Amino acid sequence: MARTILAVANQTIGGQSLIDAVLEKAGGEGGARVIICVPRTNPTHGNIIYDDAVYDAAQIRIDLARGFLRQRGIDSVGDVGDPDPYTATMDAVAEWRPDEIIVSTLPAQASGWLRRDLVERIQEATGVPVTHVTTDLDEEGLPFKVTLVAANRTTRGDELIDTLKSMAHDEQHLFIVVVPPEGGGGQAVAEARGRLSQLRERARHAGLVVAGMVGDPDPYTAIMNALQFFRVDDILISTLPETRSGWMRARLVERVQRGTTVPVEHIVAGASETAGNA
Questions:
Q1: What are phi and psi for residue 47, nearest 5 degrees?
Q2: Is residue 209 predicted with pLDDT exceeding 70?
Q3: How far, in Å, are 92, 93, 99, 129 from residue 5 at the CA level?
Q4: Residue 27's pLDDT band (cuts 50, 70, 90)
Q5: Distance (Å, rounded) from C-alpha 128 to C-alpha 261?
Q6: Helix H or strand E encompassing 211
Q7: Exposure class string for 201-215: b at 16+ Cβ within 10 A, else e
């Protein structure tokens, strides 16, 4: 039987050191079965109202890692784990019985996992060989550009897709779309998820790499939460025209610009949409 490799990571999921380690361990005759485990982690900004947002963020990381490995000829499966990385790893070990484990973290000075002796605890508890790799995202970055896109009603317009296409050019570019639902309740979340699904399908046909999540109903909190989930290069906020946009009346663009150090771009889109909060 093929060997099973468990890779555990969060922020560093797209780092080159993790990809290289998986490729090295999975190489050779017969290959290997690769399991990607990402603990679902709550951000510290604001209150997460919908647990789905936390799950979605972890699933985006898994999909990203699987995509990179697939490009290199390695199939993998993903596992969204417990918020505690040790518990997430132990759960994955119990389910998948790996032959080897790779733990990817930030450097020691920035890693909460290392401060909690995660690697040593996993080694002692499992008796399975554990390889530890680090990625310094401040120094190395990621091998692709990441744009965070905040939109709601304008997801249906052509302007947003056209803007994403113009931003992507020929480089490897990932767009992470966060859609804040209009108000609370299951119906609002379902509508936001439907808009996100339609945008992702249109983006796929346009040759764009788009992942997404339903965020907090407050767009500012949704964006700030997403910035803790993901390391991004810039932010694109898509709204209706100012006279019809609750986001513009709440001065969302200016507030986000003050709240982050990454560039923030604003586009007006969805002129044919009915009035709403976006």
A1: -110, 130
A2: yes
A3: 11, 10, 6, 10
A4: confident
A5: 42
A6: strand 209-214
A7: ebbeeeebbbbbbbb
- pLDDT of 43 reads 66
Residue linked to tokens 């484990």: 101
For 248, the enclosing helix (H) or strand (E) is: helix 246-249
Which residue type, as a one-letter code, is found at position 156? R
Q: Which of 113, 108, 116, 107 is nearest to 138 (CA)?
A: 107
How far apart (Å, rounded) are the C-alpha atoms in residues 213 and 260? 20
Q: Please tell me the pTM assigned to this model.
A: 0.78
Tokens, residue 115: 């401060």
CB-side exposure of 178: number of CA atoms within 13 Å?
Answer: 28
Average pLDDT, the chain: 87
DSSP 49-112: --HHHHHHHHHHHHHHHHHHHHHTT--EEEEEE-SSHHHHHHHHHHHH--SEEEEEE--GGG-H
CA-to-CA distance for 24 and 21, rounded, in angstroms?
5
The residue written with tokens 């973290």 in the block is: 105
For residue 74, pLDDT over 50 is answered with yes
